[in-house]
Amino acid sequence: MAKEEKVKTASHTGHYKVDDFWGTIKRLGIYLSYRKWGFLLVAFVSITATIFQTLSPQVLGQATTIIYEGINQGRQLVNGQMRYPIDFDALKRVIMIVVVMYIVSATFRYLQGFFLSKLAARVIRDIRQDMRDKLNRLSIKTVDRIPNGEILSRAVNDMENVAMSLQQTIAQLLMSTTIFIGTVYMMFSISPLLSVLGISSALLGFVIIAVITPKSQKQFALQQKLQGQLNGYIEENYAGQLENKAFNQEEAKLAIFKDKSQEYYEASWKAQLLSGLLTPLMNVAKSIGYVLVAVVGGIKVANGSLPLGDVQAMLQYANMLSQPLKQTAQMVNQIQRMTTSAERIFAFLDMDEMENPSSQLPVLDTDDKMTFDHVQFGYEPGEENLLMTDFNLKVKPGEMIAIVGPTGAGKSTLINLIERFYEVSGGSIKLEGKDIRDYDKETLRNRMGMVLQDTWLFKGTIRENIKYGAHREVNDKEMVEAAQLAHADTFIRKLPHGYDTIINEDASNISQGQRQLLTITRAFISDPEILILDEATSSIDTRTEILIQRAMAKLRHGRTSFVVAHRLSTIKDADQIIVLSHGEVLETGTHESLLNQQGFYYDLYQSQFSNASE
């Protein structure tokens, strides 16, 4: 699959087809290359440890040869006693050398682990930072199409899999490679025949790995995909638990969860079964090689063509040769999980980012603050999917524009286009005569302040949440003044710690109306040129709403504002009221003029007040 197709798959479905094993390994290697000096240091200490580790069996074999030769000479009279003429001085020297070699090898293995842990931590930090930066660059269109749980699964579960596996994989890979090469070299220096027998069993082990690995890789990929779906379902139902209880959907939701959990269980145990077969099969291959070296080596000793110490060394080397194979079998499981998770992370990093097209339209000399010129828009490509077909509007500086209409009329869509969360499909939106596509997104949005119907607060103090909306350094005096304007200061001071009160993760320790007041305070402190209010007072009582309307009248003074409203009583003072239906402007005018027309707005207004009076 080409990269463009992968991006398309990831962007439109939220799932990534896992089929690029070597491409994923290459991309992980690129992250390692950013830390190449650290990697070279780890490789150096690993090679040094391996050199001492692979030399020690041959040196230790000399001790066995010294003892064997002494015993082979038979008991002799030495210093008046009958004993075997063993050269204990030479034996001590050999043992001391072996002890020093083991100590040096262990020391360098420790240094390998120390340096490698730092290297792996820095690599994971780089990937995490790239994911965080990517999230900031993702288009709203892309984010809207991916379940929150799926993104969380990639950012948390998949990242943890890579973090846990990366260090172990690199350590085992370095050890396995260096030990295998060093062991093979030492074996051939002693006996080519025995080396061939030992290596043959190693090749058998690699064949076993090559057969089983692709099958288990598919199951691990399915396991991670199902885990992401399961996490998304859990997150969705956790957020909607009140609705589930209110409509008695607990049993139905639990049944769906059990089905999804069973699918995940099936994929998980199959993946673990296949990967679990590697170790016992590798042990069989190891035992075959060990037995062959022992039998043929024993015959060579009996024939006098090979010292006993060399056979002992070959048996140790045969055992050492199996260690890389065993580590490889264990490493395959880790690599499968790591690459599966890494592919999902890289698929996230390859998703569509916010476009920054340039309109190349000339700047108009105009007194209008904003101009909507034959705007067309659809969430999906194609003329048949257009939600707005020909929207036109001119907004003077300081005007309050109210946007009303039935559900699905395009009110919130218009707000999304102003903020450039979505790009227009046709026509243009101009700010002070310049197409908004020719503005840098950050510059454009710094000139706007927004309060949405769905409040968003993060875990932190009220002080931090309010100042989140500021585009500059804001002192506490300015913060309190903004809170007073938004009528939030009173309830904040009644909280246990005032402005230092911690808001929990879902902001459930304050009421919905209080959350709305904080988001309005955030808009006040941003001091925007253009104010966007999308049902900003929907969760506030009538008395507080009147106070907020008065405060917003002060805030709107000298500023252009767009107000999306369902309660028409809140927009009587609007300079223009835009009545939308299916993305088209039905009526435009002031509150009084629209009532006098006795059209769609008149019917909508009368229906609200007739309902209120009943």
> What is the name of the CATH topology of the largest domain?
ABC transporter transmembrane region fold
Query: What is the mean pLDDT?
Result: 80
Q: How many distinct helices?
A: 20
Main beta sheet: strand number and arrangement?
6 strands, mixed
Protein structure class? alpha/beta
Please provide the count of β strands.
14
Overall shape: elongated
CATH superfamily of the largest domain: ABC transporter type 1, transmembrane domain
CA(first)-CA(last) distance:
62 Å
Instruction: Determine and state the CATH class of the largest domain.
Output: Mainly Alpha
CATH architecture of the largest domain: Up-down Bundle
Number of domains: 2
If strands are numbered along the chain, what order do they take across the biggest sheet?
Answer: 8-11-12-5-13-14
Into which percent range does the helicity of residues fall?
55-70%
Beta-strand content bin: 5-15%
Domain ABC transmembrane type-1: 40-337
Domain ABC transporter: 370-607
Transmembrane segments: 37-55, 90-111, 194-213
Membrane topology: Multi-pass membrane protein
Task: Write a structural description.
With 614 residues, the chain is of the alpha/beta class. It has two domains: 3-349, ABC transporter transmembrane region fold, CATH 1.20.1560.10; 356-447 and 575-614, P-loop containing nucleotide triphosphate hydrolases (Rossmann fold). Helix content is 64%, strand content 11%. The protein has 20 helices and 14 strands. Strands 8-11-12-5-13-14 form a six-stranded mixed beta sheet, with helices on both faces. Strand 13 (576-581) and strand 14 form a beta hairpin. Helix 15 (476-485) packs across helix 17 (512-526). Keywords: ATP-binding, Cell membrane, Membrane, Nucleotide-binding, Transmembrane, Transmembrane helix, Transport. GO terms for molecular function: ABC-type oligopeptide transporter activity; ATP binding; ATP hydrolysis activity. This is ATP-binding cassette, subfamily B.
